[in-house]
C-alpha cells in the first residue's frame, strides 16, 4: 500500500481535506469561531489564527536518508535491515547546514512559515532527545538541528511547525506488523508494546513542545494503528497554545491535509468549510533528497499552489536538503521562480475571500476584496478569452497582475450565447500563449458591490 492509499484509509479520501464527498463540505465539528464568508473555513478565534495569515509555507524532509539520497523511506522501500540502516548515523555530519540560508530561500519564495521533520518513519531524531540514542547528538555532527532552526526562526519571527511520524521502524516497542508503512515484523530484540511506545511518543512530544520556545504547529503522520487519544493533542495545546495540529494524529485535529494530487475531491471542490493545508514536493519521486530526482514543472506547482490559496487553504511546498545540509540547486531555483510569480499576484491570495460562486465558469477561480475581483486562470486556458457568466457588469479596470499590463474587456453578446440572448463580461486578448508556463491572474475593479455584478 502506498501513501496515497494510506491517506484514503486514514481520512476517507475527500474527508482528508475537510470535505463531504457528496456536498463538497464537511460539518467542521470542533472548530471554534464563526464562518467568515461563503465557502470559507471557520477561524479558531485564538492564537492559532496566525495560520490564516501566513498561508504559504516551506516543508522540509531531512534525515540520514539523505545520505543514500534515494527516498525518505529508504529503509522500508529498499528493504534495508535495521542494523544496516542504523550505520548511516555514523556518517551524519551536515557541516554546511545553515538554517539562515534556508530561511533566506524561504523568504525569496514568498513563504511565511516552516515545517520540518523532527522524526520520520525511520525513527532518527533531529533533536537532543533523552528518549532514544538514535539521534543527531550521537553522530559525528553532535548538534541539535531542531534547536538551531528554532533559534533562527525566532530571531526572524518565522512560525515553526514540527513534523512527527507515529510509525517508527527503529523503536523496539513500536508494533511493526507489516501494515502499510511498517516493517514486515519485529526485528531481533524488539518487544512490541503499543502502550510503552505511546509513553515514549508522549515524552518526545513533550520535549519538542518545551525545549524550543514558541512552536506554531504540530504535523503528525502515519497513525497506522488508527489509535484515538485526544489527550495527546490536548497536551500540545496546553504547552503550545498557538500550535495548529493536523488531522493525521490521534484525533481530527485542526485542519485537513490533502497530499500531492491524490485527492481529486480536494482538488476540484469550490471551497472548504474546514481549515485545510495542502502539501506537495518539488520532486516527483521523493520528499527527501534524491540525487537523480525528477522535478515537477513550474506550471504544475504554480497551478497547484494557486488552486488551494484561491480557495482559502494553506499550502506547504517541500524540498529535501542534501546530506550536507544544502537545498539542491534545482529545488532552490524552482522556489525562486515560484516566488517571483507569487510576489506578483500575492494581493489576490492573501486577505481575500473565495468568490468562485460568482461565476459558473469552472475553468477559473475567483477571489475578492471589497470591490475588487481577482480572476485566476488556474486551469490550462483553451483560448485567449475568458467569459465570466453570469456577470454582466463592466469593471472600471482590468490589470494582469503577472506583469501589470492592461487587459481588454467587454460586455456584449457572444455567438455562443445566442439561444439565451444574454450578454456577459468577457476578458479578451489574454497572453495565454506568451505566459503558458504560469497562472494568469487578472485584477478587476468595480464601482459597485461585488454582490451586484448581475443586472437584469
Assembly annotation: single chain
**Helical content band:** 10-25%
Number of domains: 2
**SSE string, helix = H, strand = E?**
HHEHHHEHEHEHEHEHEHEEEEEEEE
The total of helices stands at 11
Strand content: 15-25%
Q: How far is it from the N-terminal to the C-terminal residue, by CA?
A: 55 Å
Supply the CATH class of the largest domain: Alpha Beta
- How many E-type strands? 15
Would you mind describing this structure in some detail?
The N and C termini lie far apart (55 Å). The chain contains eleven helices and 15 strands. Helix 10 links the parallel strand 6 and strand 7 (314-319). The strands form three sheets. Strands 5-4-3-2-1-7-6 form a seven-stranded parallel sheet. It is 23% helix and 16% strand. The longest helix is centred in the middle third of the chain and has 17 residues, at 194-210. It is α/β, with parallel strands linked by helices and 456 residues long.
